[in-house]
Design goal:
- By secondary structure, the protein is of the alpha+beta class.
- The protein has one domain (about 5-95): 3-Layer(aba) Sandwich (GIY-YIG endonuclease).
- It has five helices and three strands, in the order E-E-H-H-E-H-H-H.
- It has helices at about 25-35, 40-45, 60-70, 75-85, 90-95; strands spanning about 5-10, 15-20, 50-55.
- Strands 2-1-3 form a three-stranded antiparallel sheet, with helices on both faces.
- About 25% of the residues are buried.
- The model has no long low-confidence stretch (mean pLDDT about 95).
């Protein structure tokens, strides 16, 4: 079974957040940056990849995405800042 990713995009430091799931993170983040696939992301200029988690199965990734979407905003900020305190754009690190 193919693995998956859960990711969080942000418009800026502590700005508008978007949580998504994908099997191919580099392609999906590129699509978001091109304005493809999410009206919400396009409308609010959400392009900075600030958090990503890899899962062995897409089903596990989907479950994590659903859980994260229920979290309070402050908890999401804590999750991001645990590994990325400066809210750096992680796209180049993920993309290689």
């Amino acid at each position: 079974m193919k693995g998956g990713w859960v990711y969080i995009l942000a418009s800026r430091y502590r700005g508008t957040l978007y949580i998504g799931v994908t099997a191919e993170i580099a392609r999906r983040v590129w699509e978001h940056r091109q304005g493809i696939g999410s009206e919400f992301v396009r409308r609010y200029g959400i392009t900075r990849l600030v958090h990503a988690e890899r899962f062995d199965s897409i089903a596990d990734a989907i479950a994590r995405e659903k859980a994260l979407k229920k979290w309070r905003r402050a908890w999401k900020f804590e999750l991001i800042e645990r590994d990325n305190p400066e809210w750096d754009d992680l796209f180049e690190r993920i993309n290689g």
